[in-house]
Amino acid sequence: MANFVELFGGTLLCKEGNVAAKVLLCQQPELSPTPIGSSADRLPLPSEKHSTPTSKPRVCLAKDLHMVHGEYYDLMEFQHPGGPLVLSQSRGMDITASAMSHHLSEQWTQVLAKARKARQKGQPFDGIANHRGVAWVPHSAVVGTIEPCGYSFESTGLFHATKTAVKQQLLETHGNLRPRPTVYYSAHVFMIAFVYLSCWYRCCFCFFFTSSITAWTTSMLPLLVAIPNRIALVGIAHESVHGRSPCFGEWFNRIVDRISPFSGGVTGNFLWHLFDAMLAFPSEKWHYEHCLLHHPHTKRFPETGENGHGHGKGDAKTFQPFDPDETLAFLRLNEKTAWRWVPHRAQVLWQLLISTLFSLVTYIEHQVIPQATTLVPSTVFICLFQFLPIFTHPDGKLVGLKVAAFVVMLSNAITLHCLHVSHLNEHCAEKQYSFNQTGAVDWGEHQVRTTCNWVPGSLSLAAVGLPHIKYSYGLTGMLELQIEHHLFPALPYEVQQEIAPLVRATAEKFGVAYNEFPGLVAGLRAHWAFMQELGKGD
User: Fold this and answer.
1) Contact status, residue 282 vs residue 367, Cβ threshold 8 Å
2) Cα 268 to Cα 407: distance, rounded to the nearest angstrom
3) Any idea where the domains of the chain sit in the sequence?
4) What is the enclosing helix (H) or strand (E) of 93?
5) Residue 3: burial class (beta carbons within 10 Å; 0-12, 13-18, 19+)
6) Where would I find the H helices in 280-357?
7) pLDDT by residue (tens digit) across 316-326?
């Protein structure tokens, strides 16, 4: 398998070559970055460059550039080892937070520094890349603006201290700064997939309702086992979108890449498409919204309307940092969302309903309505992994519908609530933290204050008067260590477990609360109480 690589905005293995027609497989939001090579204002390809610089300085649109630490760069000629997807999706954005959190080494900063040094020798900007395909663009040559992310990354801050300590621990325990997922994790992925597919087969083709109590109990067992394994598969899909795929052979990745109906320039990461299969949510769109928006800008409410996009100088549209998870239809997820009596008074019930129908809603929204190029394979996926019992169950369509509803809808509801527990609660409410657009807020501190963990390995049913239930590693869906995951999203799950005590200690040293629920049920209770309070209005 190809080497594990770090990206500016996410971690992903993509194939090189022509990705103009395939890199974005679904329709992005209106102002999402355009595919590579589609803009007439982008820098020329190497074959199109002149041998000598032009005498007249050229200009670039801000929406075609990337911003890092307040400086503009053209990265579209840079042969990123992780492939072109993340750079294409992040055009017109400040990627400082994404780059700082995904890269533990300083190699990327050295590349940018050499590009600046080459350009600052006095030559006019001529569109020719300066160092390894990276072009530093002076502000005077930029039309439009990119909104700075507004965070601080000072050496005296929490993030820098945590990152330094984590790097030291990784070098001591792993000998490098990019540890790979272990063989045990690979075996775990295969085990979860095998168990789920076995149970799903029985859910689709085996009788359930018989006169024998023993036979009935045995036939119901696959339903109960399928639910946690389906949740775990979504967690594995989440890991894969961040690039933390199991260790498989290079030959296996090449075969899967060739036969994949989604392809799209993605290679070496066949689990990338689990989101398409389990939730009918396009993985590319999830990568854009989750890795490039939600992660670096957690709980930031859009300042200029629902899309978080505004206008820069001239006619160039610019991106303003925001978290798309803060604006969901029918739900009031924060204090800044205007209160409406009809949907918000009963928003806890609304959320339960929406979560059960989550995969069907995303299929209609992202595949059917826009007539996406992946509509056919997505339709095959949703029929195979969600609606198949309706057509194949031997007890009839009604029983098949009940089976599909029990397994798919219940697992969808638990998965969505697991995601919401980490950010939508009293500990992470806006009144518990402050954000200053001038950049006074340390990015790591902002992440710790807006994120919660819950203790893995226990459902903590004591919160409802029942004893604890222990369960094996992985059935949590690997969604419980969100503080560590947000600070260092490129690290594998096992490494996140290793650094958790170090992150907690550093946060306490800086006087920042490290919030962790004793279990999932306790987290759900706190989440529902918070949602109910928001539903009452101001």
Assistant:
1) yes
2) 30
3) 183-535
4) strand 93-94
5) exposed
6) 283-286, 341-344, 347-356
7) 445 567 777 77
